[in-house]
Amino acid sequence: MTDRARRDFPEFVAARGAALQRAAYLMVGDAALAQDLVQEALTKTYVAWPRLRDVANAEAYTRKAITSTALSWFRRKGWNAERSTDRPPELTVADHAERVATSASVWAALQALPARQRVAVVLRFYDDLTEAQTAAAMGCAVGTVKSQVSAALTKLRARLGDDLLIDSEVTR
Question: Domain spanning 97-172 has what CATH number?
Fold first, then answer.
């Protein structure tokens, strides 16, 4: 690996690592699994780094690695998105009780979606990717992205209601 590549990769990780971590967390619903997922994807990106013609393609490559790895984890027998913990989740300030309740409802509804639908929604609305970019990240056709997002939004609306879904901005 060249000196430039050795310098560029850590800069890429420093600049985009937090955003990749947030997207991975939304996909798998567990902070530790998200960290593992991002580390695995970054390892794949590092190995491929010399082959990337343009550093600007690194994020797309890494997102695809995150997405494909997450989907393969979901396919594994026995993988369960529910994780037991020894402590309750952190609570926020009481002033924001309604917002927290709304966020919790949206979070629960998002986690209840099938893996591919959840990934499609996260990539489209949280990461703000186009349908084509989402399809590339998921390794599927644009039509598949459209159908997965449509089905996911139908399920979210059924669970949350139209008003809550629109007001809570599924993406944030």
Answer: 1.10.10.10
Q: How far apart are CA 80 and CA 31, in angstroms?
A: 14
Cα–Cα distances in angstroms (integers) from residue 83 to residues 31, 69, 150, in the given order:
11, 19, 28
pLDDT for 101 equals: 76
Q: What is the pLDDT of residues 22-46, one digit of tens each?
A: 999 988 888 998 999 999 999 999 9
User: If you average pLDDT over every residue of the chain, what do you get?
Assistant: 81
Q: Which class in CATH covers the domain with range 1-76?
A: mainly alpha
Same fold, 1-76 and 97-172: no
**pTM of this prediction?**
0.58
Tokens 């989402």 locate to 134
| Cα-based distances in Å from 134 to 2, 53, 106, 119, 139 | 31, 21, 21, 9, 8
What are the boundaries of each domain within the chain?
A: 1-76, 97-172
Contacts of 37 (CB under 8 A, 6+ apart): 24, 27, 28, 66, 69, 70, 73
Asked whether the predicted pLDDT for residue 154 surpasses 70, the reply is yes
Q: Are 67 and 123 in contact (CB under 8 A)?
A: yes
